[in-house]
Write a structure and sequence with these properties.
With 382 residues, this protein is α+β, with helices and mostly antiparallel strands. It folds into 3 domains: 131 residues, no CATH class; 120 residues, Transferase(Phosphotransferase), domain 1 (Orthogonal Bundle); 118 residues. Helix content is 37%, strand content 15%. It is built from 14 helices and 11 strands. The strands form 4 sheets. It has a 5-stranded antiparallel beta sheet. It has a two-stranded antiparallel ribbon with strand order 3-4. β3 and β4 form a beta hairpin. α4 packs antiparallel against α5. The longest helix has 19 residues.
């Protein structure tokens, strides 16, 4: 919304005098004589009568000094150092307070939920208004800004946000809560580079809520991220992995797509040590395409990475040229040796190793990791 629209309130907004008049004439005034009181926090946002519902941007007025009522209603109230706090307002049709879901309105329920400032019924527009932390940029806009940077792969900053979002969905699920419209980008707000869930979408789970957080995240990725990074092999695999009903929270968080370079390097070694059966090796060969990987590490090719060339030369000098099988299992073996080689002999080049292996063997790590959760791969005769 244009900033000028926010700074120039429409006629339906109440002035301080009107607010004060209601306080001194309504039953609210009786509260002063009791042991409890009324918290008044003026707010403003631009809202045309034709587009009254939905999200609006505006301000909450506050002061670090006490607000004192004037003796004359015409004078409104006295306050010093009044400031404006940018906020987002969700305007909905009139909703009785006893029907409001207190879960989403509790700012302490989880750090992953957009902080709620308060909820009120606005008589001027006859609508229920919920105020929460200002959201300066939409998730769609943020994703577009990341995708136009031209990277084939999902940037690390987005992977970290996806990881945090999934962790949040699981925490809410464990607290017997769920999120409506999890697939829509409008369900989320941005806090820096962290996607948070807007409070109006959080509610207590019921018996009909069967979709697990991993499936909800898959829906979100399908509708908002896959179409922006269409050539990221690992993203596509991760999306399919989330639909597997045999996985748990730790399986998702340990997926190579979400892992840092150190964790991914260790995974090459850990997966190779599993000593798969011949049938499983054949399954990998038939389902993960690593064709021609040996050609790309040919020591005679001047374009071959120096570290990879050293590994192949060492192999031939020591007469174990057939150690790397010409298949997917052989590619995993090579990756495992490469990790050990860089750790021992090339610590300077090690920070680039994960990217080099991903470029040399696209889809290998996520493919083998995913296979270990596939019933067709796990079961069957050796």
């Amino acid at each position: 919304m244009d900033q000028m629209e926010v700074d120039q309130p429409q006629p339906h907004h109440q002035s301080e005098k009107q607010i004060f008049h209601r306080c001194v004439t309504d039953k609210t005034r009786d509260f002063r004589a009791k042991s409890y009181g009324t918290l008044i926090q003026p707010y403003e946002f631009s809202c045309s009568q034709n587009g009254v519902l939905g999200e609006k941007h505006g301000f909450i007025h506050y002061s670090n000094k006490a607000i004192a009522f004037a003796g004359n209603p015409e004078e409104g109230f006295h306050s010093t150092e009044v400031q404006k706090l940018a906020a987002t307002f969700l305007v909905e049709n009139e909703l009785p307070f006893n029907q409001l879901d207190s879960i989403g309105l509790n700012p302490e329920i989880d750090i992953g939920i957009v902080k709620t400032h308060g909820v009120a019924y606005n008589r001027e527009i006859a609508r229920t208004v919920t105020a929460y932390a200002h959201i300066p940029q939409s998730v769609d806009s943020w994703l577009n800004s990341l995708s136009i940077q031209g990277s084939v792969d999902v940037p690390t900053i987005l992977k970290d946000s996806i990881r945090d979002l999934y962790d949040l969905l699981e925490r809410l699920w464990d607290k017997n809560m769920t999120v409506d419209d999890v697939h829509l980008s409008g369900t989320y707000g941005l806090n820096g580079d962290m996607m948070q869930i807007k409070p109006s979408h959080v509610r207590v789970r019921n018996l009909g809520d069967a979709r697990r957080p991993s499936q909800g995240l898959a829906d979100m990725i399908f509708h908002n991220i896959l179409n922006r990074w269409t050539n990221d092999v690992e993203l596509s695999h991760f999306h399919q992995f989330l639909l597997n009903t045999n996985i748990c929270k730790e399986d998702v968080l340990n997926h190579p797509f979400l892992g840092g370079s150190g964790a991914r390097e260790g995974m090459y070694k850990e997966l190779f040590r599993r000593n798969f059966t011949q049938r499983q090796k054949d399954w990998l060969q038939n389902n993960i395409n690593t064709q021609g990987w040996q050609v790309r590490v040919d020591p005679a090719d001047p374009n071959t990475d120096f570290g990879f060339r050293e590994i192949m030369i060492f192999q031939k000098i020591n007469k174990w040229a057939q150690a790397f099988e010409p298949n997917t299992w052989g590619a995993l073996h090579f990756a495992k040796i490469a990790v050990s080689h860089y750790h021992e002999h090339d610590p300077v080049g090690r920070p680039q190793l994960d990217a080099k292996l991903k470029d040399l063997l696209p889809g290998l790590l996520v493919g083998v990791y995913g296979a270990t959760f596939n019933p067709d791969f796990v079961k069957g005769p050796g």
